[in-house]
Write a structure and sequence with these properties.
The complex is a heterodimer of chains A (about 325) and B (about 325). By secondary structure, chain A is of the alpha+beta class. Chain A is built from 8 helices and 15 strands. In chain A, a hairpin with a 2-residue loop joins strand 9 (about 190-195) and strand 10 (about 195-200). The longest helix of chain A has 11 residues, at about 105-115. Chain B is an alpha+beta fold and about 325 residues long. Chain B has one domain (about 50-70, about 105-320). Chain B has helices spanning about 1-25, 105-115, 150-160, 180-190, 290-295, 300-320, and strands spanning about 40-55, 60-80, 85-90, 95-105, 120-125, 130-140, 165-175, 175-180, 190-195, 215-220, 225-230, 235-250, 260-270, 275-285. In chain B, strands 1, 2, 3, 4, 9, 10, 11, 12, 13 and 14 form a 10-stranded antiparallel sheet that branches. In chain B, helix 2 runs parallel beside helix 3 (about 150-160). Chain B is globular. In chain B, about 35% of the residues are buried. Classes of the chains: A alpha+beta (about 325), B alpha+beta (about 325). Strand 2 of chain A pairs antiparallel with strand 2 of chain B, so a sheet runs across the interface.
């Protein structure tokens, strides 16, 4: 049964496929550090835990799932005209397959800037108000190798920090349309840190043209709501804890060094108290690099994951077949 | 005075013992159910699993881990005697609720268990001209929470599990068909324990008519094989599992309420390319998750502690016999 998971490799396999390498050889200030023959090993670690306890009968549930994988890229060709890179991708237990893709710093950063934030507001009919119901950060546009043209990259990433950009549009039942800007969002949440700039209201953010590391963290506790659909009107419950952090770090030469993404939430609804910890890490160097004590991110991950019981949503729970039949 | 009291107490204890024994003797009056309408039960369920794959040629590893614990509260709302079904209102730890219906027919359940408990898959190893086991399962699938406590009927049906002559698999090769019996399988593996009876060769197994607990342990180390198929060369390769342990136990109260279910699987195999390890555990307990964690389940905690040393002991015994 467990081994079926290996064949599915649901999450990470899909992630790797989508993430696949891109490169381009535009002129840039920095010299790339990846070539034909370059071999780089990564650790990909995904984990999720969910704990629940019902408010009336005190029924307890706990789920934890983690998938840890080492993957190696061996670059076999670089097409400087079409900005393509071809690499052999080897995964333990899966084998080796050839994978390619093309992009350049401008395309990658453009996609990242356009899709990094996923912010969703809804109209709460019962409370007659706008409520934030989803905040997530996309990471599927990330790459392992990129042209080190950081000026272009950071110029595009600068769009992320435009406080006037509209992040969502919501219409209420009276045909009024609300446009929510990034500034509205940032000014409403508890705290945040973008590229080292903290949550001063109306702060103007700027990116250095030479940045190779981008970091974001948000605390949306008691600002974001869990939505539960009702027959006539939906119900909304505030998350007492909702923190999100995101780090993307490349070498000067354009090789992915670290990607880290964490969400920690806790919410109490009419039915249950639910806590969730979700984490993704991609670390250059494989498991050994992740386990190095000096690696702060891993230490942080350990602190979060080990003591905290992770919850699975009921949909994700997979009891033994025999048990399910009795349900 | 004290002595007289002691004698009196002794007689009373003896009388109680005789009475309690007579209650479970075959042929005695049917045991009364201990589950009724409006009864409320909480069951805890745990599924743990850890799988790892280490490539021996690529310096790459993979690991998957899962832990799932859940609790369900069942309130019996109806018992349909004609169809032998029990209806419960189920509450889950997510806060969801549902209505479920289970069969409680002892005959139906035990027949199902008897028919589906074992699964063996043997293959013909052409290179070495022999039959080898490549898949094995021993488990009570489809666990029921409530059963009619007709243990005589239940155990009579389960007796087939101890029938050494039953054919567990057939393998055809070179225009010949080999029939492998349960006895062949049991005599070939390093050790096993069925209903408390250990691995004496040719041992006939019997199940007491009053049993409400069934347990089996199998050590298939170095007997069961991992298959690898070379699609290019169209060749199968077989690698023995250096460790392959299966333990299963099911226990009901005398009145037919599920008390505990345990299934554990532990294996390790090295192929020419990889080292594969797996630990898997499924448990259900009346009383909820706390019943799984607390020392109340001493027997099961102890059981898990004892299994490995026991298997090792039997391994040694077997080797001594061979020597």
């Amino acid at each position: 049964m467990i081994r079926n998971h290996l064949t599915k490799l649901s999450f990470i396999s899909i992630l790797i496929t989508i993430l696949m390498i891109n490169s381009s050889l535009h002129s840039s200030a920095a010299t790339r550090d990846w070539y034909v023959g370059t071999s780089v090993k990564y650790a990909l670690i995904w984990s999720e835990s969910i704990t629940t306890i019902t408010t009336i009968d005190a029924l307890e549930g706990f789920g934890y799932c983690s998938e840890e994988m080492e993957i190696r890229f061996d670059i076999i060709s670089i097409d400087s005209i079409n900005h393509e890179l071809v690499a052999n991708m080897t995964i333990a237990g899966i084998g080796t397959g050839e994978s390619d893709g093309y992009t350049d710093a401008g395309v990658i950063s453009g996609l990242l800037a356009d899709s990094l934030f996923d912010i969703d507001y809804r109209w709460d009919k019962k409370g007659d108000r706008l409520v934030l119901t989803d905040f997530d950060m996309h990471y599927f546009d990330m790459v392992f190798f990129i042209e080190p043209d950081w000026e272009i990259f950071n110029t595009n990433m600068g769009r992320l920090l435009d406080r006037t950009q509209i992040v969502d549009i919501v219409t209420d039942g009276l045909w009024t349309t609300y446009e929510i800007t990034l500034g509205d969002f940032l000014d409403s949440i508890v705290s945040y840190d973008i590229m080292g700039v903290r949550d001063t209201v109306d702060s103007q953010f700027t990116l250095s043209n030479s940045s190779t590391k981008w970091s974001f963290s948000f605390d949306l506790s008691n600002v974001i709501y869990k939505r539960e659909c009702g027959t006539h009107v939906d119900s909304y419950f505030p998350y007492s804890t909702y923190t999100v952090s995101y780090t993307l770090d490349f070498t000067e030469g354009g090789t992915l060094n670290l990607f880290e993404y964490n969400i920690i939430t806790e919410v109490t609804t009419d039915d249950a108290v639910e806590e969730e910890v979700y984490s993704v890490i991609i670390q250059k160097g494989g498991f050994e690099a992740v386990e190095t004590p000096s690696n702060f991110s891993y230490s942080l991950l350990s602190l979060m994951i080990l003591p905290v019981l992770l919850y699975f949503s009921k949909k994700k729970k997979r009891p033994k077949p025999g048990v399910i039949k009795n349900a | 005075m004290l002595k007289k009291k002691f004698v009196h107490t002794t007689i009373t204890c003896a009388l109680l013992t005789v009475l309690s024994v007579s209650l479970i003797l075959p042929g005695s009056a049917a045991i009364v159910r201990d589950w009724y309408e409006d009864d409320v039960y909480v069951f805890g369920m745990v599924m743990n699993g850890e799988f790892s794959y280490t490539s021996l040629s690529e310096d790459l590893s993979y690991k998957f881990e899962i832990i799932e614990e859940e609790e369900r509260m069942y309130t019996i709302t109806n018992i349909f005697e004609s169809t032998k079904e029990v209806e419960v209102e189920a509450k889950y730890d997510s806060g969801n609720e549902n209505t479920l219906t289970f069969h409680f027919d002892a005959d139906l359940m035990s027949t199902y268990y008897a028919s589906n408990f074992f699964y063996h898959n043997y293959r013909w190893d052409e290179e070495n001209s022999r039959n080898i086991l490549v898949e094995f399962q021993a488990d009570f699938e489809n666990i029921r929470y409530f059963v009619e406590p007709d243990w005589e009927l239940f155990n009579t049906n389960l007796e087939v599990l101890g029938d050494r002559t039953q054919v567990v698999d057939t393998v055809t090769h070179d225009y010949t068909t080999d029939e492998i019996t349960l006895g062949d399988f049991l005599d070939a593996i390093p050790s096993y324990k069925i209903m408390g009876i250990s691995d004496t060769e040719q041992t006939p197994f019997s199940i007491s008519n009053s049993s409400t607990k069934w347990s089996m342990t199998f050590d298939l180390s170095n007997y069961i094989y991992e298959i690898e198929y070379d699609y290019i060369e169209d060749i199968y390769s077989y690698f023995p599992y250096s460790k392959y342990l299966v333990n299963v136990a099911l226990e009901y109260s005398d009145g037919g309420t599920l008390i505990a279910y345990d299934y554990t699987l532990s294996y390790e195999v090295t192929t020419d390319e990889s080292l594969i390890k797996c630990e898997e555990e499924h448990r259900i307990r009346k009383g909820g998750s706390s019943a799984i964690r607390t020392p109340i389940n001493f027997s099961y905690t102890l059981l898990s502690l004892l299994i490995v040393p026991t298997v090792i002991l039997y391994n040694k015994k077997k080797r001594n016999k061979m020597n």
